[in-house]
């Protein structure tokens, strides 16, 4: 944005070269004084082969924008003004669609609680993004697939029983993620649970093979139930609301402190146990996945039965949108 000065400025500059004296008489021409942005000519006095220059004075009136930058010959210093323009970068159509898609996930619990109207809106946005896919051959851009992806929405009914556990008052599904290692062609799916006394996770490990520019075949190898990590401290509020009434929990603090001590000792014992591993039967060991949209922060995939998965790269600003 250019700023224009409203204050008139007067600049007085002088160029005083060395003067050589001569005994011969000279005829002086009058100095030339001009007002404006034009350069002022210097007065020269010719006396044979010797030249004497008298100081040249210049008066300039007006704003800097009107007069503009000025160049001087010889020892004079050039005056210039550099103006920087601040340009606003407009978001692209893809950025607007991604923002709208992530916003539409609000309150859906990764798709479990989405209404039919919300599902229709989400599918419409997904279809528009798929039509603008900047990576038409995702399996040929495996470096983009690398890393940890957070599941933000799915229509896969097989995950709904798992997500419904998050509706229980004492158990929440903290995160569902997928880690892809394109160098070793492995995929790891992780579900993290949290409760009032412990946190744990269930994960599956699989290998994948590239079958087409968009499709990969996945073969699950094993599942792992992580060792529960019990919390060694319980924060008890002063009171809680129950059926519209505030219940004072102060009398229960002694009992809760004893439970906390017991939980701490149990946590140390359980944490030493190895995680539980299990294998998959052959009938459920394979699946396929079609990546229909992929960029540096968003991935859309479709699986068996037309189910859709929307995942966001860990660290992306879309996760906090």
Question: How would you describe the overall organization of this protein?
Answer:
The longest helix has 18 residues, at 253-270. The chain is globular. The protein is an alpha+beta fold and 321 residues long. It has an eight-stranded antiparallel beta barrel. A two-stranded antiparallel ribbon has the order 1-4. It contains six helices and 16 strands. Residues 1-29, 32-53 and 71-86 have low confidence and may be disordered. Helix 2 runs antiparallel to helix 3.
Q: What's the SSE blueprint?
A:
Blueprint: E1 9-15, E2 44-47, E3 50-53, E4 56-62, H1 64-67, H2 93-104, H3 116-131, H4 142-145, E5 147-154, H5 160-164, E6 172-181, E7 186-194, E8 198-210, E9 215-225, E10 229-230, E11 239-242, E12 245-248, H6 253-270, E13 276-279, E14 286-294, E15 298-302, E16 308-313
Antiparallel strand pairs: 1-4, 2-3, 5-6, 5-16, 6-7, 7-8, 8-9, 8-10, 9-13, 9-14, 11-12, 14-15, 15-16
InterPro entries: PAP, PAP/fibrillin_dom
Pfam family, one: PAP_fibrillin
Domain Plastid lipid-associated protein/fibrillin conserved: 96-311
């Amino acid at each position: 944005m250019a700023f224009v000065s409203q204050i008139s400025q007067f600049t007085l500059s002088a160029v005083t070269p060395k003067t050589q004296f001569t005994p011969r008489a000279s005829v002086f021409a009058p100095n030339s004084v001009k007002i404006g942005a034009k350069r002022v000519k210097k007065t020269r006095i010719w006396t044979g082969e010797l030249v004497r220059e008298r100081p040249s004075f210049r008066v300039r009136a007006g704003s800097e924008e009107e007069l503009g930058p000025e160049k001087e010959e010889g020892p004079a210093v050039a005056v210039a003004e550099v103006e920087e323009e601040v340009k606003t970068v407009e978001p692209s159509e893809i950025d607007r669609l991604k923002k709208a898609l992530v916003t539409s996930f609000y309150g859906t619990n990764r798709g479990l609680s989405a209404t039919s109207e919300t599902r229709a809106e989400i599918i419409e946005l997904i279809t528009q993004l798929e039509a603008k896919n900047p990576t038409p051959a995702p399996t040929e851009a495996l470096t983009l697939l690398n890393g940890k992806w957070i599941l933000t929405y799915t229509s896969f009914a097989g995950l709904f029983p798992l997500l419904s556990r998050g509706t229980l008052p004492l158990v929440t599904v903290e995160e569902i993620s997928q880690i892809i290692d394109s160098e070793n062609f492995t995929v790891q799916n992780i579900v993290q649970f949290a409760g009032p006394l412990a946190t744990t996770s269930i994960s599956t490990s699989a290998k994948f093979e590239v079958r087409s520019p968009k499709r990969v075949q996945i073969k699950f190898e094993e599942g792992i139930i992580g060792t529960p990590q019990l919390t060694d401290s319980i924060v008890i509020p002063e009171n809680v609301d129950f059926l519209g009434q505030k219940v004072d929990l102060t009398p229960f603090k002694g009992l809760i402190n004893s439970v906390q001590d017991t939980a701490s000792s149990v946590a140390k014992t359980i944490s030493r146990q190895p995680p539980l591993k299990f294998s998959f039967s052959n009938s459920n060991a394979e699946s396929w996945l079609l990546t229909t949209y992929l960029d540096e922060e968003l991935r859309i995939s479709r699986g068996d039965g037309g189910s859709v998965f929307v995942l966001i790269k860990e660290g992306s600003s879309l996760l906090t949108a």
